[in-house]
Amino acid sequence: MTEPAATAAPRRSPLVALLTAQYLSAFGNAITVVTVPLYVLHTTGSTATTGLAGFIGALPLIFAGAVGGVLVDRFGGRRLSVLSDFAAGILVLLVPLLDATVGLPIPLLLALLFARTVVATPATAARMALLKPVIEGAGARLESVNSWYQAAPRLGLVAGAPLAGVLIAATGSAVGMYVDAATFLVAAALVAFAVPVAESAGPRGDGTAGPGFFGQLREGAALVRTMPVIGAMTAFVVVTNFLDDAFTPLFLPVYAQDVLHSSAAMGWFLGAVGIGAIVGTFLYGPASRNILSNRRYTLFGCFAVVAVLRMSLYLEPGAVGVTVICFLVGVAGGPLNPMLSTVMLERVPEELRGRVFGLTGAMALTSAPLGVLTAGWLVDLAGLRVPMLCFSLVYLVLIAVSWRWPALRAMDERPGSADPVDAPAPDADPGTRLDEGASAR
User: Fold this and answer.
1) Which of 4, 79, 97, 200 could be cross-linked to 205 through a Cys-Cys bond (beta carbons 3.0 to 4.6 Å apart)?
2) How far, in Å, CA of 13 to CA of 195, rounded?
3) Structural domain boundaries of the chain?
């Protein structure tokens, strides 16, 4: 009777460490979002260079996720997570150190920011590949831990970005770069020393070498194509990302400026969306036991609510009304990421997780810039209200078209019948410390 109790706590510690690393990474990501443009602007005095630095820093996201996913499966999630975070921390650390000592020419600065994104991106797929065995070792539910895990980028941005602004205002942008580097290095140390996950013996997990790099990349792509539920969810997310990423960076700023004539309202809108998303994400864990137990209905229901809420902006409510709508949009969208990642963790074989998470993440990112560009062109052509209404209506069309899609019905086919009890570990520590959030981690 006493032996299980004696072994329960050590099995929870890897989960606590992995979640803490995720929250640290999320906080560091928020520091990056605020610090890097301010640092470049302060150092160069050029807005053009600042914009170029942002472009160069984001460019590797298009390919580094897919390539990094292959590396995760070749070398193991734990090893690549540690190496990725450690290398990124060193590269970030070099920026203020070189600037303060021998000098930092603009080409070298841009090269360091590019390299930082390249090496940091695989850590996202690596930690996801580690998540399921760590959850199983702790005896926790996938849904519950995923709600904690997926809340990290949103909480990091909402809480970390204002803290980063205060830190930079008080101490300067160089200190922000040092803090960013420290979050990488501490996250690497946590995974290295506290997440003792056994690695596969080879790319196939059986000691054999398996195919080469491009062969493994093709294997991951083939699984996305041939496993209907993964392919359907990916296609759904690609379309909805096209619609979603026009809302915050384009529709909301234009609404604040042209309808409310208040740029300051944009801050309230962003804060409301972020806080609502955190609430919705955290609520998914307990709600997934009953109210949101049907995943397909949850997928369609959440997007239907988001569509109706955004359609209401056509009526041009005031600042308070839009803020409430933004909060409710965040709450409605909160359960989606933990739910979709739970399905993928259940379905994707361990030896392919890195590639599949890397590929699907990269595919989802490709549609987002196109959505912003399309929305901007339509707003210039037809004004704000009609494009905003049309983008919302597409959600409802997508739901109607996908309603009888057999592949999405498989979301509710749960492999195995075990339903372990929630472990209290996630409540113990990670929430006190502040990542793919919006950048490369």
Assistant:
1) 200
2) 8
3) 10-196, 216-412
Residue 299 has pLDDT above 50, yes or no: yes
Average pLDDT of span 214-223: 61
Output the six-digit token pair for 349: 């074989």
CATH architecture for residues 10-196: Up-down Bundle (1.20)
Q: CB burial class (10 A; 0-12, 13-18, 19+) of residue 318?
A: exposed
For the stretch 144-160, pLDDT in tens is 888 898 888 888 878 77
Question: Using an 8 Å Cβ cutoff, are 189 and 56 in contact?
Answer: no
Encode pLDDT of 391-437 as tens digits.
889 889 999 988 888 888 888 876 654 443 333 333 333 332 323 33
pLDDT at residue 393, rounded to an integer: 92
Question: pTM here?
Answer: 0.74
Asked, colleague to colleague, whether 10-196 and 216-412 share their fold, the answer is yes
Residue 60, Ramachandran bin (φ over 0: left; ψ between -120 and 50: alpha; else beta): alpha
Class (C level, CATH) for 216-412: mainly alpha
Q: CB-side exposure of 318: number of CA atoms within 13 Å?
A: 1
DSSP per-residue codes, 47-98: HHHHHHHHHHHHTTHHHHHHHHHHHHHHH-HHHHHHHHHHHHHHHHHHHHHH
Report which of residues 253 and 108 the model is more confident about. 108
